[in-house]
Every structure is written in C-alpha cells, then in structure tokens.
Specification:
Layout: E1 8-11, H1 21-36, E2 40-43, H2 55-68, E3 75-78, H3 80-85, E4 101-103, H4 117-129, E5 133-136, H5 140-152, H6 167-175, E6 181-184, E7 191-195, E8 199-203, E9 212-214, H7 222-232, E10 237-241, H8 248-258, E11 264-268, E12 271-272, H9 282-291, H10 296-304, H11 310-318, H12 326-335, H13 345-351, H14 355-363, H15 384-390, E13 401-402, H16 405-418, H17 421-435, H18 438-443, H19 447-454, H20 482-490, H21 496-508, H22 515-528, H23 533-545, H24 553-560, H25 562-575
Parallel strand pairs: 1-2, 10-11, 12-13
Antiparallel strand pairs: 3-4, 5-6, 6-9, 7-8
The structure holds one RNA strand of 78 nucleotides.
Length: about 575
RNA sequence: GGCCCCGUCGUCUAGCCAGGUCCAGGACACCAGGUUUUCAUCCUGGUAACACGGGUUCGAAUCCCGUCGGGGUCACCA
C-alpha cells in the first residue's frame, strides 16, 4: 500500500431525486476504495441544473447515504441533530459511524456546485483569454437546423468553431452581456483514455466536438464543473458508471488545456432490471399504470386513498412520461394490493431491507472479492468492514449486470435471521417508527415476543405483520378456514375438537404463560395421551388463528395471551 | 446510423491477463428427497453455461480474426 494517503475519491450525485441503486453502488465503491487506501472520500452535490435540482433531493441523498453507512470525510455536513430538525428520526443514522458526517477540513469546499460559480468563471476566463474557449451565440433553432442537416447527410452532428469566426467581435458581445454559451475549443487530435477497468481506449478527433462549458444561465455544464472540482479537490480516482465513458475524452482534453492532472478512471458496468430494461424512477409509475383498472368507479375508489383530483389522475394516466409523488403512488398501490418495484434507496428502506445487506448485494454487481471459504464455496456475504479492507479496482468486471430481487431477498432473509434477537428487536422498532408507527402501540409489551416469532419467518421487515396478523385481531374476529376446520377439527379420532376440549383446562390452569411453559405443557399433554404433537398443535392453531399456519405453538398462544387464547378456543368450540 | 464498451448456467459470477490440474466451481432461483407440531428454517442430492465460425497451438473458456447478439453515447441533463 504505497502512497496510501494520497487517494481521494468522490461521489458526485445530482440532486434530482432519491438516490437509486446504481448510485449507491458507485458511492459504495468510491467509499471503499478510499477506505482501503487510507484516503479520503468526498461527497459533492452537482446542482448545476437549476431546473431539476432541489435542496430536498440533496437532503434526501445525504440521508440515504448516512442510512447505508456510506460516510463521507468531506462534503455537506450531516448530523443527527440536523436530521431531527429536518423531521428525520436521529436513529436513522447508523450507530456505528461518527455522529457527524462531512465537513471541509482541507478547505476545498463548498460542496454544492451552485455555490462555486466564481471558481468556474475564473478558470473559464483564463481559457477564453488563451482562446481555448470561446463564446457562441447560436440559437436553439440554429443548432437544431444544423443537426437536422447533418442527419439528412447521415452524418453525426458535431459542433466546431467556424473558420470565419470573429473572435474580437464575439468577445465584445460577451462583455456587452449578450446571452451566449461558452464552448471549449476541442483540439484536433485523438485522445487516449486509460481506464483501470477497460484498459486503453482511443477516441478519434472527428467525434469530439466543441462542447459547452458554460450555459447561457451562467452555470457551468457538468463537464466543466466536474473537471475543475476534481482538480481543486485533489481527486485522484474517478469511479463512475460506464455511461460516462464517452465523456472521458472531453474531460481529459479539458484537463490538458487547463494544465490539470488526469485522475485514474475506473468505469463500472451498468445495472439493469431483471428484464434487461433500464432501471428508472418511472418504473414505479409504470407498475401502477399497468395495474390501474379501467373502470371509472374503481379508479375513483383508488383515488380516494390519495389527495389527487380526478383531473390530476387523468393527466397522469394519459401521459406516460409523468410521475406521481411517491406518497400518491404508494397509496394507490396499497388500494390496488400491488407492491411497487424498489428503485431508490428509500424504496428498499421502506420495504425493510437491512442497509448492510443492500450494500453487500450491490457490491456483488460488477465486483467480487475473489475469495473462497475453506469448503470451497465463494465468499459472498460480507460487511462494510470487509469491503473497506478488500475492495480493489482490478476485480471490477466489464459486463453489465441485471438486478436480481430474489437474490437480494435471500441475502436479506439470511442476514435478518442471523441477527442477535435483541438487535433484531431494535431494528424492527426503528423501522416501525418510520413506516408503521401504529404497530408497536398495537403490540404493546408483546413486541419482544412478536419479534421472536417473526424473525425467522420474514425476508424483509415490511413483511413482519404477516406472520403475527392473528395477534392483532380481536378475539372474536377470527375467521376460520373451512378446509382447515374440516381437516384438523372435525376429522380424526379423537377429533381436533375433542382434543381441544380436553386440553383447555391445562391451558387455563397454567401458572406461567410464557412460550416455553406452553410448549412444555403441550408436550406433556401429548405424551400422557400418546398423541402426536400435530394432533394438538394443529387444532389449537386453527382455533386461535383460523388457519393451520402460524409461528411456534408457544409463541402463537403467548402472543394472544391466556385470556385471549381461552376465549378464542371457547368460541371455536361453541360455534363449530 | 457513427463512435465506444461488453458477451461463462435463467440471474450474479469464479476461472481468462501469466493456455493443460475445467467433460468448467460457487451463490440465488428451480426440481427431488430428508429433519421439524404448521409455516419458515435447516440438511442432502439434481437440472443448467464457455454466443457462433475460423485461426494459432500437441492442447483454447483462456491468445488472434471475423460474424452475430446485448449495452452505452451522440444536449445550453448529469
């Protein structure tokens, strides 16, 4: 590990929405690479698109990263106290990490590009001065015309400064404040990009154009801001998605013009949906649109669940490019009994995935540690500490990956099951506070027992209500599954009903109604009568839950409580 | 369409750079058995891939060429 301290990476999202899984993986790798080499990891907000950027989105991204445990050394300051002020629960920040994330110890900030306009302009002026950049006054219509013209000749349009360009006149117009963009004079020579993942890639000059450095609104373009900031912030390694590969020669040429260093580039394979389509925030809208019934009255009932007006819904239904707020989407999905596809970090969090599992799974998309267990199986379950110790550029793959929800689910289930019970209890409570605040109140002091019953039976925290749903019903609200009743209560010799009647006094007189005591009593009862456990357990299940499926007998009865259990069994005996 | 990248089981991948130990290993999914009071676990076993065609070589998943296929990108978005 030579020159260890010299590594500086950054994650630079644009704040146009929640962080999505592709972004998470990029952030994760940047973070891990910096950690691995004892370097620094910067978070920078690329908010140069005034129309699409929002402070809310920026805050959401910080929140997402903090929850994932991807902590930045430099960048916007994030602290639990600030979180509380923003209406976010302080527990949402991982316990293990520092309480405050970010800051500007080297004074290379600010970390919002919109606050760095002076810096960009300074470098831009220097380029204009040397005629390496120049103002251009073309209108959108003129550019369109040029593009169309190129298209009819079956050529790719590429903007280059015309031979007769009058620089002095252009500079006069610029100083006069005439609206214009400033373009880079792309040198007429090929550019070779060296990539740590893909190797050496040559781009010939005829495909490189005089791209825009500063937009008419005075903001820098992504290309310009990224090159300036990476240099000023000392970024040594740029890890990003392969969609940026074709931008790289532009950045390299710009760096040369500005006398900047070229960082090490590592372009990562892309992540797609299981069906090969692009993972998009619109997938959620798409899913709801597809499930939306045609009938007007059903639509109306669905809409009642949201604050939408009929016209809002109509325009959204008609225009496939429109997106509904997540809240609305969620309520409609609930009304339709539909689960939305998870795309953003927030979606996975709401579904109840563990942050460390999401990180583990995502880091396996396009990378792997290349290590085996003693039994020869591949090492593929690991935590953030492991990632930080073993992540390396040379094990990043080249081919795109499809996101496999089943595998994520399997990882999550295993991780949930492996949690110490007290830890599971804590995590579930935390999740409930944010997404199901009514549940802890409903469960009251039964929460711990519910946690115990639920932990080995769920894949995500969002599924926790399911295995213990019976415990939330009123005692006279059990609906009996007819098939179960027939099979476990009416048939057999003795019948289930007879066994129940026989067992009821035992239950009523139990000194201790803890799961262990219940199970012990049930076992003793069966042994004394030479009955198989199923002869008692199944009738009991049906009597108190209505079905043959439930957690362990002791847990099930314990959750309902002695009084409730007796009441439910009596009711069963009386009505059937 | 131009340019660029990629191509091992259904999916994620190991193996490729330094050709033989690979009739290709693991994980998820799937199928079949088993354990268990139901469910969920857990255990055992199984199906399943080197895109295709040439070449180099004693020998190619591994090196070279071509074909086909997939993806990215061609903005005053990032």
């Amino acid at each position: 590990m030579t020159a260890a301290a010299s590594v500086i990476t950054r994650f630079a999202p644009s704040p146009t929405g929640h962080l999505h899984v592709g972004g998470v993986r990029t952030a994760l790798f940047c973070w891990a690479y910096a950690r691995r080499h004892g370097g620094r990891f910067i978070l920078r907000i690329e908010d140069t698109d005034q129309k699409r950027s929002s402070e809310d989105a920026a805050r959401g991204i910080l929140e997402d990263l903090a929850w994932l445990g991807i902590h930045w050394d430099e960048g916007p300051i994030w602290a639990p106290r600030h979180a509380a002020a923003a209406g976010v629960h302080p527990h949402s920040v991982a316990d293990s990490g520092p309480t405050t994330i970010g800051g500007d110890p080297r004074s290379v900030g600010p970390f919002f590009q919109a606050q760095r306009l002076d810096i960009y302009n300074r470098h831009l002026d220097a380029l204009i001065e040397r005629d390496l950049a120049y103002p251009a006054f073309d209108t959108a219509e003129e550019l369109d015309a040029l593009r169309r013209e190129a298209a009819t000749r079956k050529e790719t349009f590429r903007y280059r400064r015309r031979p007769g360009y009058d620089r002095d006149a252009a500079l006069r117009r610029l100083r006069a404040g005439e609206p214009c963009v400033v373009r880079f004079r792309m040198p007429d020579e090929p550019v070779r990009v060296t990539d740590a993942v893909l190797g050496e890639i040559d781009f010939t000059e005829e495909h490189l154009d005089d791209f825009v450095l500063r937009k008419a609104d005075g903001f820098p373009t992504y290309h310009f801001a990224v090159v300036v900031d990476d240099e000023l912030m000392g970024v040594t390694h740029v890890l990003r998605g392969q969609e940026h590969l074709n931008n790289t020669p532009r950045h390299v040429a710009l760096q040369r013009a500005l006398g900047f260093r070229t960082p090490v580039y590592a372009h990562m394979p892309l992540i797609f949906n299981a069906d090969g389509s692009k993972m998009s925030k619109r997938d959620k809208d798409k899913a709801v649109r597809r499930a939306m019934p045609a009938a007007a009255d059903t639509q109306a009932s669905v809409m009642a669940a949201t604050s939408l007006s009929p016209s809002d819904l109509a325009t959204w239904l008609a225009d496939k490019t429109r997106q509904l707020p997540t809240d609305a989407l969620l309520s409609i999905a609930r009304a339709l009994d539909l689960s939305l596809p998870e795309i953003d970090v927030e979606d996975f969090r709401r579904s109840g995935y563990l942050p460390e599992v999401l990180c583990n799974y995502l880091s396996l998309l396009g990378w792997n540690p290349g290590m085996k267990h003693a039994d020869g199986t591949d090492l593929d379950r690991f935590d953030m500490t492991f990632l930080a110790e073993h992540f390396s550029l040379d094990r990043i793959g080249k081919s795109n990956a499809k996101f496999d929800r089943d595998k994520l689910l399997a990882f999550n289930q295993a991780a949930v099951a492996a949690l110490p019970p007290a830890e599971f209890d804590r995590r579930w409570r935390e999740w409930c506070e944010r997404y199901d605040p009514a549940l802890p109140a409903l469960l009251g002091d039964r929460f711990a027992l519910a946690a115990r019953a639920v932990q080995p039976r769920i894949r995500t925290l969002g599924q926790c209500r399911e295995p213990i749903a019976f415990a939330l019903w009123p005692d006279d609200g059990v609906t009996f599954d007819e098939k179960a009743v027939e099979k476990t209560l009416r048939k057999g010799d003795p019948t289930g009903l007879a066994v129940l009647r026989d067992f009821l006094p035992t239950l009523e007189s139990l000194a201790d109604f803890a799961p262990e005591a219940i199970d012990a009593a049930a076992t003793a009862f069966c042994e004394s009568r030479s009955l198989g456990m199923g002869k008692l357990a199944q009738p009991l299940r049906v009597a108190v839950t209505g079905s043959t499926v439930s957690p362990g007998l002791g847990e099930t009865l314990g959750l309902i409580g002695r009084e409730g259990a007796v009441r439910r069994i009596r009711r069963c005996l009386e009505t059937l």
